[in-house]
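Quick one: structure for this chain?
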Amino acid sequence: MDTTDRLPDVATDWSINPGAGSAPPRILSPSSSVGCVSGLTSVPETQKPKILFMGPSRGGKTSIRHVIFHKMSANETRFLESTPKIDKIDISNKSFLNFQLWDIPGKLNITQYHKQDAPPNPQLEAIFKDARILIFVIDPVEEHNHALENLHNLVSVSLQYNPNLKIEVFIHKSDGLTDEQKVETIRELTHSINNKMLLSEHRDVYISFRTTSIYDHSIYEAMSMVCQQLLENILQPFENLLNAFVSSNKMEKAFIFDVHSKIFLATDSSPFDMPMYELCCDMLDLIFDLGCIYDYREVEFTDYHSNKIMNIGGEGSEEGEPRGGAGAEPGVGSFPDEGANISAIKLNDSVLHLKQINKYLALVCTEQTQHGESAPRGLLHYNFVMFRTGVNQLLSVATL
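Got it. Here's what it folds into:
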């Protein structure tokens, strides 16, 4: 192979940056679903799922990963430089999620290294072979005909190396578009790429399109949908447990969050409501911001709508002592210990509950209050303990 047809060597030239019902309500028995679980956490690095970030330069790929996984504010991303080389990031630090994210620079047109009649390119094989999902990030404001042509070529090449690769398209920087413009953009892009794929041998490929922005919660929702595809074997058991918990406690909506990234790993089967999801994300931010200020000690503040004192802290925590016990060190984006941290915030006609499942996961749910009354706290706590036991048993099987 001529040197002009050679990609940079994986081990030497590429930049690698490490991580970064009608029956009485009851809790679902955890033993009923654990048999189908396969693990995502605690796996060797060579077996970790891999997600590829690709797309034109200045499309927002690097900003997305810094906002979600490195807790950078959206305004700070304006000072990020373009990615010069392939960045390989290990998403496992202080997070339940455990996968590799490869950020491919937009200036690197890797499809040019694929020759139709030549043997498989080993460098392209290293990129696509073990990848689970390819995320193509596109800016709808820019001229996207060239980007769609690149996407078509990329899909054609990648599927030759990995026929099981799933394709996601993020129509990014969509915060400046109206709802009508978002719908029209998705319709136009879907029509264009489908016409291109019909003329190729990959006409049966399904491509998901999502509008995203780092200035609202749409990027978290989109990445949640992507990461859930890495948890296919435990997603249904999680949903079953959430459905049982919501039904038993007359909750409106419930999510299981990865607290570091604000990605929800599962939700119950009721219709998804974006404003409610935003409230749950804001509660996560509030609790952990207060936790950093007060060193994870018990915090009290006044709910001015009801003049009631709300409690933020762990059960049975003593004043002046961190909930992790003596010498506990609070982390950023994770709970400081494995104990039960429970928080509640009362709004006008609803209550937001945040309950710790383990160090990295939390249950956040919304409860509609009628006439100012909420569910009995003793029953709610008992059902949550059963729910947490079920989730942890599922995860114990998943990591075997």
